[in-house]
Design goal:
The structure is a single chain. By secondary structure, the chain is of the alpha+beta class. The chain contains 13 helices and 14 strands. The strands form 2 sheets. Strands 1, 2, 5, 6, 7, 8, 9, 10, 11, 12, 13 and 14 form a 12-stranded mixed β-sheet that branches. Strands 3-4 form a two-stranded antiparallel sheet. The protein is globular.
Length: about 400
Amino acid sequence: MKKLLLTALCAVFALSASAQNEGYKFTDTKVVKVTPVGDQASSGTCWSFSGISFIESEILRKGGPEVNLSEMYVVRHAYEARAERFVRMHGHANCSAGGAFCDVMNVLRENGIAPEEVYAGKNYGTDSHKHAELDAVVKAYVGAIAKAPMKTLSTAWKAGLAGIFDAYLGEEPETFSVDGKEYTPKTYFESFGINPDDYISITSYTHHPFYTQFAIEVPDNTAWGLSYNLPIDEFMAVIDNALNNGYSVLWGSDVSDPGFAWRKGFAVIPDADTESMEGTELSRWVALTPAEKQRELYKLDKPGKEKTITQEMRQETFDNFETTDDHGMHIVGLATDQNGTEYYKVKNSWGIGDHIYGGYFYASKPFVALRTLNYVIHKDALPKDIKKKLGLK
């Protein structure tokens, strides 16, 4: 549980109308209802933390209460399903801490959810999530099972896997009480009126036809979740339409780009503004080596020109493994910098710490256009014309 002081600080940072960092100044223009920032700590579970944050905001959007749902309940069930697929694939699949947004929806649909206070998932002697040992044990266990040393699988292997998760995350609850009412995980989730089938994943790549669905070919998409494929302009328009109509966006992005300046509180794709450079300034720029130009671009001491992102650039970075399934986050609003340039406000899951914006940062539209792998929204957040093109009701 977060201390009250930290929770209060989080709320102050999250709801602040404006913030400043060195040469960047941001003013929030629209922010949806959110719950406090979480901390995945030393675990590869951003997909669950961002997914649960998104669902908590959806509950608030629909007029429900503020709740603190268990990320580790989702992690446990998704990890077990991932392990079973790994064994079915004779070890030729991914079985690690990493997951996809479809894993969250699958667990909610099939298993329900528990409150954080009922299932915190920290059964190994620390106050924060530390999964290195758990991940190593699961990897070794399922690796041995997949080799089928007895030629056929025993009837005990799934119970053995469950025992590992019981030991590290705790036994999952069959029933629990919230505000004096008894629930199972399934009835608790049903009480919020959220239908996982109402949520869709959107992407934008040219190696599959637009306005169709495909499973994005990345290691963590072990459940082969499908995404609708939109051209880049519509891909970006959907995000804006969602936020402007009170919906948040569950965002999967690559954060290895040098423009991902998390500690400074923003993410950008800078470009040299040679058109506005005067004689000596332009001459100096032209004379710089490629390495020197990179250092100059990524000083990031004030807002400047950013690259215009094209469909071809998106495809190239995906094909060259420059945009990968790095990190899941939660886009919760819109903001502008001091030049009037629009950004997205993003809720992260790396805790509050001494972060300048209390666990939030601002991502430019070029950054989102280039580095997004996929995002999830409620289908009603789609503009009507795009919804029709996708054949959705």
